[in-house]
Structure formats: C-alpha cells, structure tokens
Specification:
four-stranded antiparallel sheet; 296 residues; mainly beta
Length: 296
C-alpha cells in the first residue's frame, strides 16, 4: 500500500505491506510542499504523483530516483494515468491563455508529446487495454441556448467521450466493416486458424506504439449524447465511466462495448473503482459501498 504521511514534518510517500504488520518504508525524502494523488504503475515498480508546487513526477521504488515528468506555470496537475505497458504517462497539461492539452510522456525517451490541440478543452483520459487507443473527454459540442431573462446565449453539456488512434495503421472501431465472407475448406481448417490466432494473442503483450504524424486529427466520437463524463476505465473491449446528461436518469454508471458499438447504463451510483485484475468493482452510493463482479 502506498500512502502520504507528514510523520517527518513534511509530506513524504511511504509503502507497507497490506496486512499492516511490517514497518512502513519511506520512499521519498526532502519534501517541501503538499503531495496529492498517487498512481502505481501497472508493474508496481514506480509511483506517479502530483503536488502543490505544480509538479508531476514519479519515483522508482528500487533506486529511489525521482523523475520530473512536467511542471506547470499555470495550475496543478489533476488528470494523469499510466499506460498498461508502463512505458507512457498520459496527462492533461494546463495551458496559459488556451484550453488544456493532453500530452504523452515517454519513459524511455524522457520526452512529452502533445496529442490534442488547444481548440477544445479536455478532461479525463485513459489508455485502452490493448494500448491501441487513447480515450478522453472533450468539450466539443456547441449547442447554444438563449436565456429567458438575460437574452444572451449560454453553452452547457458540451462534453462527449472521444478516442484517438495512436498509430495510422490502427483502424477506428467506427469504420465501416466489410460484409465479405471467407469460405473455409473445412471445419478443421477453421479451428486450426482460430487456435493459431489465439496462441499469437497470448504470446504478445500489448505495447504502446506512437505515430505522432497527424495524431491530433485521428479523433473519433464515442458517446452520442453530450453531457459530463468522468472516471474513464478500459477493460478489454469495454469502457466504463460515469456520466451526467440531460435526462430523467441524471447521473449514472455506464459501459460502452466497442464490439457491439453500444452504450449500456449500469445503474445510478456516485462513483466506482475497478480492481487491478479487472474482475471486481467497488461502487459507492448514498454513503454506502459494495464490491461485486465487474458487469459485462
């Protein structure tokens, strides 16, 4: 378990075993400001965090080396996440006199690359489980309404969820699909081919491949209705999230299935957290919490 404590007089990061019987291990030192949210890397070798000094940085658990990912001159970092292969960090960078921009930081190169432009504001961001897409929320829907008393136009419910293909070769799930059917010579041949494909998929672990040429233009709309979206979490070919749209349902927990290209409302809750093995989900509602199998 990783946590922040001011036992030394300053905020520092500690880790300890989950049963709480062993002594805590201090990971950081020389702290001079408040630390905020912690994010473990998927391989549990690094911890990423933001702080009051408007830094975004991570520490290697074994070497205790701290690496600065980004420093903002505008405001604190609030949105950041690891890629499933531990090689990239996606974060929303506050911009001066412009909308926020999503950057991808390469652990290997030690460089950050912008993947959205400043025309539209962005919010939550996460990688797809197969490392092929970047899912994010963005305020790109402009539907002005006229106020009844001020006689002035206002903009509300501007957000939708979008996806970004990280390489040119990756096809968008919303592209038209071919209706051509390949004729197999026999059922045995078909099963052999399926087994070969399954073995290939099992051996190949997902890894982020980044093609920056024209990346800001490779954006596709995911959700059809504009509103407010947050807590994007990818599991397989499904995306889980919280949404609030103008409807009788109000705030709800939802899932988008990229195989069926269909959104499903899963209930009225206030928040959720999916376990690291992606099999269980912790849900909160009305001050109560429950753990259950991840709905699919």
């Amino acid at each position: 378990i990783a946590y922040i404590s001011d036992e030394t007089g300053e905020d520092e990061i500690y880790i300890r075993s989950q049963e709480g019987l062993s002594k805590p291990i201090q990971i950081t030192s020389g702290g001079k400001n408040y630390k905020y949210s912690l994010r473990w890397s998927p391989d549990s070798k690094k911890i990423l965090w933001n702080d009051r000094a408007q830094n975004l940085q991570f520490i290697d658990i074994d070497s205790k080396k701290v690496t600065l990912v980004a420093k903002s001159e505008v405001w604190e970092y609030t949105v950041f996440t690891w890629s499933p292969d531990n090689k990239y960090i996606a974060y929303v960078n506050p911009e001066r006199d412009a909308n926020s921009i999503i950057y991808l930081y390469s652990i290997d190169e030690g460089k950050a690359f912008p993947v959205t432009d400043s025309w539209y504001d962005v919010g939550s961001v996460t990688f797809s489980s197969d490392c092929k897409f970047l899912y994010f929320t963005s305020a790109r829907t402009f539907a002005p309404q006229l106020g009844q008393t001020e006689f002035n136009h206002i903009y509300t419910d501007m957000e939708k969820i979008y996806l970004l293909t990280l390489t040119k070769e990756t096809k968008s799930p919303f592209e038209p699909k071919s209706d051509e059917v390949e004729i197999k010579t026999s059922v045995k041949d078909e099963k052999k081919e399926e087994n070969k494909e399954e073995k290939k998929e099992d051996k190949t672990k997902p890894s982020v491949k980044l093609d920056l040429d024209g990346i800001t233009e490779r954006v596709a709309e995911v959700t059809p209705i504009s509103g407010n979206y947050r807590s994007l979490t990818s599991v397989g070919n499904k995306l889980y999230y919280m949404k609030r749209v103008r409807s009788a349902q109000g705030t709800s927990f939802a899932m988008f299935d990229f195989d069926k290209l269909k959104e499903t409302d899963l209930g009225d809750i206030t928040g959720f957290e999916i376990s690291a093995d992606q099999k269980k989900i912790l849900m909160g509602m009305g001050g109560s919490y429950a753990i259950m199998d991840l709905p699919s």
